[in-house]
Structure formats: C-alpha cells, structure tokens
Amino acid sequence: MKKYWMMFAALMICCSANCEKTVAERYSDLHYYEIDTAYIARDWTPEQGAAFLETLKGEYSDMKSWEKRKNAIDKGLRDVLLVPESTEALPVPKATITYTQRCEREGVVIENIGLEVADGIWVTGNLYRPIMLEGNHPIILSAQGHGFEGISAEAPRLVEDGQRMCIMLAEMGAVVFNYDMWARGESTLHFGKEAHNTAISGAIQTVSTLRVIDFMKSLPYTDGERIGMMGWSGGGTQTFVATSIDKRIDWAIIITQVSCFFPGGCTCESGLPIHVTVSPQLNNCELAAMAAPRPLLLLSDGVDWTRTTPDVEYPFIKRTYGFYGAGNKVNNIHFASDDHEYKRNRREAIFNFVSKQWNLNTNVIKDQAGRYDFDSVQIKPWSQLLVFGEDSFPKNHVTSVAQAYNSLQKLRKNK
After folding, report:
1. Structure confidence at residue 44 (pLDDT)
2. Residue 42 phi/psi, 5° resolution?
3. What pTM did the predictor assign?
4. Phi and psi for 223 in degrees, rounded to 5?
5. Could you give the percent of the chain with pLDDT greater than 90?
6. What gap in Å lies between CA 285 and CA 282, rounded to an integer?
7. Which residues, in sequence order, are CB contacts of 157 under 8 Å at separation 6+?
8. Would you say residue 194 has pLDDT above 60?
9. What DSSP line would sit under 37-57, residue for residue?
10. Closest of 226, 281, 221 to residue 251, by C-alpha
11. C-alpha distance across the termini of the chain, in Å
C-alpha cells in the first residue's frame, strides 16, 4: 500500500510541475511505458467508488455535456495508448496460418493464426469459422484475460469450455477470433511474463484489437458491418477500452469486470495511468458507457469487484444510455451466488445475447431438451491450438519495450 501512495505522490508532483501539458505529453517518454504505473484508485472501497460516480453525475446531465466529456476521454486514451487516427488507412496485418483443422460434427474450421499487428508485434489466436461459408458472416472478437501465465490446458485461450463456446458460436454462423493477451498465454513463451507488467502492454493490447478488426474485415466471407466483442476479466477491460475508441464495434459483452472502485489490478488495465487523462479522473463505468447507444451486456457476480453492479454501476451506465433514448440497449445479468470464474451460465447468456443481436439460430447448438449442448462438442487437444509454440516464433519479434514502443509510434505515424 505504501509504495502505491509514494507512486501517486510522485505522479502528482509531476502533474503540478507540468500542469500546462496533457497527460499524454507528460507521460510520452519511453520510461513510463517500461515500468509498472498501475493506478492508485485500485485501492478504493465500494463506497468511495459509488461516491465518485455521484460526483461525475454533476459533470454531465444530458447528451451534449456527455459528448463533450466523451470526446475528451477519447482523445486522452488515443494519445496515451498510442492509437493511430485510423487503422483502416494502414495495410492489413500480415497473417500467418500455421495449422488448420476441422470439427466435422459441428461443421467448424479452426485456424491457428499469428497476426503481425505492427512491426515485430505479433498476436496469437485461433479463428473459428463455419466450414460452409454462405454469404457474409458476422465477426466476434474474444479477448482473453490473465489466467494462467504460460501454456497449458488452463491457459484462457486453450481451456475446454472456451473452445466449446467459440465452436458453438461458429456453428451459429459467426466468425470468431479468440486471442491471447500480450505476454500472457502462448505470448508468454516469446516475450516473457514480466513484459506484461509494463505500461506498454495496455497500448499493445488496444492497438492489437483494432488491428484484429482490420484483419477480420479483410476476409472475403465476413460482414464488416456486424462486429461484436466480448471479454472476461482483463479481457473485459480490453473490450470496454476498445469499444470506447473504435465505433466499428457494434456491441460489447463485458464479463465480471466493470467496477466503479476497481480500475483493474494490472498495469495493462490501469497503467500510464490512463485514468487521469481527463479531469475529473476517468472511471471504468464511463469507459463502459462510451459504448452508448450500441448494445452492451454486463455480466456480474456476487463475490468479486462486480458485486455492486446491479445497484451502482449498471444504473450509472444506464443513465448515460438514457441520454440517447437507448436505456433498453444496456442490460445486466447478475449471478449473485457465483464468483469470478467464466462459468457456463455466463456462456449461455452470451449465446442468448448474440442470437438476439444478429438473429442467429441457437437451435443448432441445443440438445433435444432445448438446453445448450456443451458436452457433445468435440474439442481439440490444447497443444493443437498453439500458433507458433516454443521454437517457431517469427524471428523479427520485438525483444524489448523500447522496440515495441518504437513500432507503435511508427504505426501511429503511418510510416
């Protein structure tokens, strides 16, 4: 606790000495991307978080005043997270498909894909699509959280239920890209887990998501006008940050993550720190609300930092949606007796939501009793989902935060 207060004090001294500069200008030096700058507000109590939301309500009371705040948030995030003005103006990311396999019973193809989203920065993931490609298929991004730090059956992208969900969404007709956090999961093999604990990780993950969208839109069988994104835990943070920045995302599902008093326990979520890019400081409930008026589903539980969602965070976000006359576009499903785990009841809620948004057929993934049939899905050994493994990662990959920083700056300047 003491080290966080010392860090906060140092940041405030820096702020007072450079009050005429923006946060992005104050923290644009490479040094700030190489260290853990996680934000002190992660030590707030639920009561402090709720009280701060009441303060924020005084900042905007209608769409006009909210849009002014929203534009300031957008600019601050783009600057500090090194986001290009438009990634669509850039060449489509280079894709390397290392292995393709079929789930014949389900009629689904799985492709192991590495995407070079910027020079030497690679994203590892699996693309799930129908074998029979008919017309243009909607796109779903599935961003993974922290979970297991290396590769095993416990890594978030490789867990059995995660495979099942992606296969079942592809059965419904979607094209799903399920991908690792940077320097987590398979990515840990190549960058090391310590690289994740630097502020550059948040910038890489945000830019990576936007570049994944560029890639998915470039596929000849996808519908670039229908793009959804979902994420659990730290993947939920990636989801609401990306959705707040990129209007191409049609809807978002945030699983056990939006909290007024917990901005994320990792530098990849609250580093630099992104939450002081505006004044008053930014709250994650505002980031989630920036999806308005697009459909948004919040899944919460009764144990972790989302335990107050039905009474505090959800009403605050719904208030913002009300500015657009879209209060019916945001919903919260609360699992009061559950914990932070990504359980099947959450996955069932996801199927229902996705089906509603795009009128997709869920009967193809249900048993004769009308229940979602997870257990009959034929999953693959987790080792068959690895993109590069330990020995075949592209040799041009970045090996330092400085290299990654320079690569993102080059991308941002469209060079």
Report:
1. 87
2. -70, -10
3. 0.92
4. -105, 105
5. 70
6. 9
7. 124, 125, 126, 144, 178, 179, 180, 185, 186, 385
8. yes
9. ---GGGG--HHHHHHHHHHHH
10. 226
11. 42
